[in-house]
From TrEMBL, chains A, B:
HTH tetR-type domain sequence ranges: 15-75
Gene3D superfamilies hit by this protein: Homeodomain-like, Tetracycline Repressor, domain 2
UniProt protein name: TetR/AcrR family transcriptional regulator
Keywords attached to this entry: DNA-binding, Transcription, Transcription regulation
DNA-binding interval(s): 38-57
Domain of life of the organism encoding this protein: Bacteria
Amino acid sequence: MVDAEVKRRPGGRSARVRAAVLDATFALLSTRGLEGLRVAEVAERAEVHETSIYRRWGSRENLLLDALIEVSEQLLVPDTGRVRDDLIAYARDLAAFLATPLGHALEHALAAAGDDPDARRARERYWVSRYERSRQMVTRAIERGELPDTVDPRLVIEMLVSPVHFRVVMTREPIEPEMPARIVDALLAGVVGSSGTPT
Amino acid sequence: MVDAEVKRRPGGRSARVRAAVLDATFALLSTRGLEGLRVAEVAERAEVHETSIYRRWGSRENLLLDALIEVSEQLLVPDTGRVRDDLIAYARDLAAFLATPLGHALEHALAAAGDDPDARRARERYWVSRYERSRQMVTRAIERGELPDTVDPRLVIEMLVSPVHFRVVMTREPIEPEMPARIVDALLAGVVGSSGTPT
């Protein structure tokens, strides 16, 4: 689950400014989407000077990058002790986040963003950050002996999350409550072996 | 595989006009993307009157709908007699099509399109058409006894194609040549059972 409010961390004025600016960024993304994100309005809402934002982040794109990474770090990775439960909970949380205004805005911003160097760098850092965290569900399962060590964590995560993103971005179909479990069961046991029943 | 040139069908002037207009639509989508698709330019390129296009299709959105459905009908569904080979070939063809300028333009048009009634209808008809054709690979495998009849063809197709679309639209990573086979093996045998080796 993602908390749209950035947690206030100790660290003095600099940390407070960052938190206020990111909060304002999230709020504007939630209400207006990426197109409506203007640095001047972020500054006004965060009660800081626009020049402070440019001094710290350099560009609107870098601010968006920082916001995306921040969101990524707030997405909790479940650790229930069972890989099936972890993966189902993760896919459910992802679907729930993408259904929020902020999640919807970030998702469509990522899908619509161009391929200029800033956008590319933001996108790469975002997905690296996401995969680094989510792959832990699979590596822990391998360490527990629940999954063979030949399993590729990246492939498992990609096959888990891509049907969720596919529905939100491409087909725009609702994600049924049972869909995460059906994906995970097909992924873990295979459609030949499982016959569609839970493992 | 998709042939970007619409096949000329018998049927007189009406069919020739439709083919010429769709050809022009594909050509403009390939070179300019969705944003650059103007009915006046389609008409000029197809050597028909702009009013003929509006009389037949009603709107630019309906023309795009017809173009999307036409592309869908040209995507061949493999029928090798083995579900693994069919699914791998289908995912490879999809990845190859999305790497063409036309495929890239249509994919990003679908991802970026709004949710107004015309766009929604176009999108729905497109995906219904795609699923109706692609699910045949799974239903034939069930009829052959290769897959249990409890398998949901729609889930299999969705889990097969979504990682391909995910890379093209969201992460923008290249699709490695071996990726389709890895997806299909994980999907058929499961990551627990297969240990990542081919079935």
